[in-house]
Description:
Layout: H1 2-21, H2 27-33, H3 38-50, E1 54-56, E2 62-64, H4 67-73, H5 81-96, E3 99-105, E4 110-117, E5 124-125, E6 132-134, H6 139-144, E7 154-157, E8 164-173, E9 176-186, H7 192-213, E10 233-234
Antiparallel strand pairs: 1-2, 3-4, 3-9, 4-6, 5-10, 7-8, 8-9
Helix pairs in contact: 1-3, 2-3, 5-7
Amino acid sequence: xxxxxxxxxxxxxxxxxxxxxxxxxxxxxxxxxxxxxxxxxxxxxxxxxxxxxxxxxxxxxxxxxxxxxxxxxxxxxxxxxxxxxxxxxxxxxxxxxxxxxxxxxxxxxxxxxxxxxxxxxxxxxxxxxxxxxxxxxxxxxxxxxxxxxxxxxxxxxxxxxxxxxxxxxxxxxxxxxxxxxxxxxxxxxxxxxxxxxxxxxxxxxxxxxxxxxxxxxxxxxxxxxxxxxxxxxxxxxxxxx
Length: 241
């Protein structure tokens, strides 16, 4: 029994490895790659899909799922994504005065905030590190799902929070979007002219991080996704919660 269970785990890991190495594999392609019967491969892939380790596209291809992000987060390299991104985030705060977030894909169609450099205004967005936002209603989510327009950044007003405007730009590695950099601003303070100025600054900052990814192999911090929380526009005299 133990030997059978071990073999099942080995087969599942082999399948997961070939899917992660490829840009989408069908059932027949993945089963051939690891020398498994299609019925066995299908059973293992369904289990991996249920657990979020792989996802199936509409055309039947299997791709790495969001849980791979959390697994990768456990093996930090000497240069983490957060450490690599922080200088660009700090420069962006200095240029705009607004809070800057770094986010990655979380589990169950969410984006996960993994780092922040807080803005300098008395009223600012804060304390969302470790929290999640829906991919379909957030600027970061649009970027993380590959829906960045030619401008290089996304703008969402009154998306996840009715009193907040967010801008986001993609951080890419080998042509794939691996993270999003976001400016999160109280809506009362942002005008169209601000968006026109902030957007290119944000896209440039994200591009600088992307360039850094070409020189190192980043890993992610060990934060798992959490449930969503209400808005948190804070004042320095109020603890960030």
